[in-house]
Every structure is written in C-alpha cells, then in structure tokens.
Amino acid sequence: MDIDDLYRSLGLEPPTDGENKNAPNGNEIKARIDQTLNFGKARNIFFRKWYAVAAAASILILSATGVYLYNLNSSGSEDMITITAPSGETREVTLPDGSHVWLNAASVLRYPAKFGETREVFLEEGEVFFQVKRDTTAPFTVHSAHLDTRVLGTSFRVKAYRELTHEIVTVVSGKVAVSRGAEPLALLEKDQEVIFEKNSGYEKEVLVEAAETVDWKSGNVILKSVRFEDLILAVENAYQVSIHFDRQKFKECENSIRFSTHQSLESVMDLVSDIQGIRYEINGKEVIVSGEGCQ
What we know:
Blueprint: H1 3-9, H2 26-74, E1 80-85, E2 91-94, E3 100-103, E4 107-112, E5 119-131, E6 140-143, E7 148-151, E8 155-160, E9 166-173, E10 176-180, E11 183-188, E12 192-197, E13 203-207, H3 210-213, E14 220-227, H4 228-239, E15 242-244, H5 247-250, E16 254-260, H6 265-276, E17 279-283, E18 286-290
Parallel strand pairs: 5-6, 15-18
Antiparallel strand pairs: 1-4, 2-3, 3-5, 4-5, 5-8, 6-7, 7-10, 8-9, 9-12, 10-11, 12-13, 14-16, 17-18
C-alpha cells in the first residue's frame, strides 16, 4: 500500500504536489485511525448483540416446539392404532376389549390401544362389520363421517365410503342406537337398516336380510336393491380397478347382484351388463362404462 492508498483508507484526499503544507499531522491521522477502529468495535458489538438475540429467539422457538410436541404426544394420539384393508382384501382384527371386527376392502379403522370408561372407535373410510363384546358399564361407539353408532354388545355393520352419497348402519343381532351428533336418528333391531343421505340429511329405515350384507367376509358379495354407485364401488374395491361412469345418468338405477371375488373381473362385468344393460371396456386397471342409464 502506498501513501495515497493510506490516505484514502482513512477517508482523506491525498495531497497533490506542493500541498504537503496542508497534509494532516500525526494527531489527525491518529484520530482518523481511532474513528475507524471504534467503528469496527461498534460493529462487532452490534453483531455480538444480534447473535445473542437470534440465539435467544431460537431457544424460544425450540422450546415452544418442544411444548407443542409434548402436548401432541400427551394427547393420546400415539396410543391410537390404525388398521387398513387395501382394495382387493378384507381383514379381521381383535380389539382391546375382545370384540372382533372385519374390514371390507378399501377400509380404514382407528381405535385406541387400550379402552377406558368408554369404547370408541373411528371408521375413517369404508365398511366394517362389528361383533362387540357385551359390557354394560362401557358403551361401544363407532364414529363415522356423519353418524355415531352406539351399542352395549351386538353385531352390526357400518358402511361409510366417501365416494357414496349415503351412509348405512345395519343390525345383524341385538340393538343399535344411531345418532347424528346429539340428534337421535334411529333405534334399530335385527335385520333393520338406516340409510342416511349425506346431502339432504334425510334418513330412511328399511328391512333387510342383514347376514347377507356382510357375507363379503367369506368372499361373497350379495347386493339387493342397491344403487348403481354401490354396485360399481363393490366391484372396484374387490378387483382393485377404477370404473368410470356417468353418475348423473345412472343415479336412479337400482340393482341386485351376487358374485364371488374368486370370479374374474370380466365375468362380473358381464353380469352387470346383463343386469343394467351397460357396455364396458377394460383397459388394464381402468374400466369405462357407458349406457342409457335410468333417467
């Protein structure tokens, strides 16, 4: 570094020839050096304070996160068990109280690892058949998307697929109380069923042969006077396919069908064709359905 550079580094204009008489003296240069050094010291103090504040903020954030995670873990969510039956499969599970449940294809059930004073399970998706161990001191409740089904000890099914426009509760044995939140909807006995319409909130009670509605546990699908959407969904779930059809055109159609999941997809679609007069085309895992519908 030459003398001119030194002047400029201190914020001074270097003297021109003949101007040495105006050159800063040693005291002025020292003052400029002190000013520069003090600025650097102030800057270092600023950054040290900034880092201290940032560190403190980080500790607060981590502490808050820790509290949140602790609360989340303390809420009991880690004690919940989720059971899934994928498309094309059914699954049997024994609950902590000894009750038995069967999940139909494409169903998800969530329940606690240990029951307390009440026994509550959550049907997140699909269709489940329950054989509930009787316990008059601890009611058993199934929560589905729109309904709450409460029993003391009996056997029943809850059907609550998201794709369908309705939810169904069917009693195979005993008695079942069905409500929508605090609103009672039905008190059902053997071979009675309530159909709840999601859009209108309307419910209808009908008589059925309840044992047939859960024969899918043995690989036999028996559907009597069901909507076309129910029939199609049963085929989709049994054969792991996606079936495309005009819901508006077929929404008034009702059908009855019986098939085994051991049959081929083609043979079952032939049955649907004979029953409803549809045309279909299978492309891998996609099935295209067309026809006149029931308008």
